[in-house]
């Protein structure tokens, strides 16, 4: 990454971190309905991968989606309004935290069902392949998603058809409150290798390394080499999910948490910028002020009118007997 690219990525990462911390604070006082799955600690994956995405390429996400939307270029105020289910949200305030979508920025959407986003992304990749415009599709998932049956089916089909699909696995070592090694007999890279799909493993807390690896895999996808998988090893700074005032008690080993906190992706990127002679403090101050304005504006926005519940809904007629 150039100095300017690294600074831009750092801004995206810091925006995501402050954004998520504000959301968690509002969740704790009952302002955010439903569950929130924070991506604090994962920021370098979204910023690094999407730094190399062409603006016209589609991105598909899962329930830990706020950082992906912001890295795609979505308006932070529209994202915040959606999380708070207010008017002017990306989906009119009707989708909430786990169902962000922004077609204007080619963010096709997020799914709250584990691994459900993978076949959706494969369908988009098939359409792009048929269009012949040399575009790839990016889909994010957690390491648990690769253990789902639909993931196996999707990856097998994608390889057979040579789809231009980049699957980005955010491997944080945990599946909810259970260590991944207690659930899966093989790590993500082992699962993918068994399917004969080209893949890379990378330090997902190093935005430069992540961007470099993603750029190489995206180039393969665009060149017609078929699907690729990037396994980005990272860690959640907070926890899997929260609903309401009670944050989950720490369920991970203290030494493990301490190890990963000393590898915080924001610190890694900031130290790299400082080594290049760039002071990250002005960016931090600018972003903190921006998020403060966004939160105030979102909280001042009313909820959607009840009558809007029937808008933006597609109705398909049923043909044939039950």
Instruction: Provide the CATH topology.
Output: Rossmann fold
User: For the report, how would you describe the main beta sheet?
Assistant: 6 strands, parallel
What's the order of the H and E elements?
HHEHHEHEHEEEHEHEHHH
Q: State the separation between the terminal residues, measured CA to CA.
A: 56 Å
Question: Got a strand count?
Answer: 8
Describe the structure.
The protein has 11 helices and 8 strands. It is globular, with a radius of gyration of 19 Å. Strand 7 (198-203), helix 8 (207-222) and strand 8 form a beta-alpha-beta unit. The strands form 2 sheets. Strands 2-1-3-4-8-7 form a 6-stranded parallel sheet, sandwiched between helices. Strands 5-6 form a two-stranded antiparallel sheet. The protein has a single domain, classed as Thiamin diphosphate (ThDP)-binding fold, Pyr/PP domains (Rossmann fold, 3-Layer(aba) Sandwich). The chain has helices spanning 3-28, 43-50, 66-72, 76-83, 117-131, 149-161, 188-194, 207-222, 254-261, 265-275, 281-299, and strands at residues 59-62, 107-111, 137-142, 165-171, 174-175, 178-179, 198-203, 228-233. It is 43% helix and 12% strand. It is α/β, with parallel strands linked by helices and 322 residues long. The longest helix is centred in the first third of the chain and has 26 residues, at 3-28. The model has no long low-confidence stretch (mean pLDDT 95).
How would the blueprint of this fold be written?
Elements: H1 3-28, H2 43-50, E1 59-62, H3 66-72, H4 76-83, E2 107-111, H5 117-131, E3 137-142, H6 149-161, E4 165-171, E5 174-175, E6 178-179, H7 188-194, E7 198-203, H8 207-222, E8 228-233, H9 254-261, H10 265-275, H11 281-299
Parallel strand pairs: 1-2, 1-3, 3-4, 4-8, 7-8
Antiparallel strand pairs: 5-6
């Amino acid at each position: 990454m150039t100095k300017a690219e690294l600074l831009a990525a750092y801004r995206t990462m810091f925006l995501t971190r402050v954004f998520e911390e504000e959301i968690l604070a509002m969740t704790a006082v009952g302002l955010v309905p439903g569950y929130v799955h924070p991506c604090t600690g994962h920021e370098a994956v979204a910023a690094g991968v999407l730094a190399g995405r062409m603006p016209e390429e589609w991105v598909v996400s899962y329930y830990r989606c706020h950082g992906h939307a912001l890295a795609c270029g979505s308006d932070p105020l529209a994202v915040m309004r959606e999380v708070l289910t207010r008017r002017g949200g990306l989906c009119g305030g009707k989708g909430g935290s786990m169902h962000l979508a922004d077609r204007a920025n080619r963010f096709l959407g997020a799914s709250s069902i584990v691994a459900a986003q993978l076949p959706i992304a494969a369908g988009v990749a098939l359409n792009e392949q048929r269009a012949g415009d040399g575009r790839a599709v990016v889909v994010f998932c957690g390491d648990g998603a690769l253990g789902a049956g639909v993931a196996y089916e999707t990856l097998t089909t994608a390889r057979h058809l040579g789809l231009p699909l980049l699957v980005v696995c955010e491997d944080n070592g945990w599946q909810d409150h259970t260590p991944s090694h207690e659930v899966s007999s093989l790590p993500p890279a082992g699962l993918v290798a068994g399917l004969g799909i080209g893949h890379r493993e990378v330090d997902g807390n190093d935005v430069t390394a992540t961007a470099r690896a993603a750029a190489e895999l995206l180039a393969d996808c665009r060149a017609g080499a078929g699907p690729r998988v990037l396994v980005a090893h990272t860690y959640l700074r907070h926890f899997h999910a929260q609903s309401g005032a009670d944050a989950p008690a720490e369920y991970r080993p203290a030494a493990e948490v301490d190890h990963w906190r000393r590898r915080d992706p924001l610190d890694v990127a900031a130290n790299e910028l400082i080594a290049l002679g760039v002071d990250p403090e002005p960016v931090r101050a600018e972003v903190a002020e921006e998020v403060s304005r966004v939160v105030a504006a979102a909280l001042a926005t009313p909820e959607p009118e009840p009558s809007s519940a029937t808008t933006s809904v597609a109705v398909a007629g049923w043909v044939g007997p039950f």
